[in-house]
Design a protein that fits this description.
Length: 101
């Protein structure tokens, strides 16, 4: 009886082959586009860095010339206080994360 049931169980595994092939295709697609993904992320990081340097310089100039009672100065110091925070603010602006922060 077990000699008959075992091949029947093996036949039940055949129905999973299309799922496995789709997963394999998805994995292959991801591994083949990995170099382009790294290049795109590097370009995005570089652009954010360049604009963060520009914005930090502009905000520092604005804060030094602003009136002490200006309400925008505290917000600018929060969002653009350091280069890293400026980069985070710009990335959140690009990705829509500034709405929930």
């Amino acid at each position: 009886f077990t000699k008959i049931v075992r091949p029947a169980r093996m036949l039940r595994l055949v129905r999973w082959f299309p799922l496995v092939s789709k997963l394999r295709a998805l994995t292959l697609a991801f591994t083949r586009c990995r170099a382009m993904l790294v290049c795109a992320v590097t370009c995005l990081w570089l652009m954010v860095f360049v604009f963060a340097v520009i914005f930090s310089n502009a905000v520092a100039g604005y804060i030094s010339d602003a009136d002490p009672g200006n309400s925008y100065v505290t917000d600018m110091q929060t969002f653009f206080g350091s280069l890293l925070m400026t980069m985070l603010t710009l990335f959140m602006t690009i990705s829509g994360g500034l709405d929930w922060w």
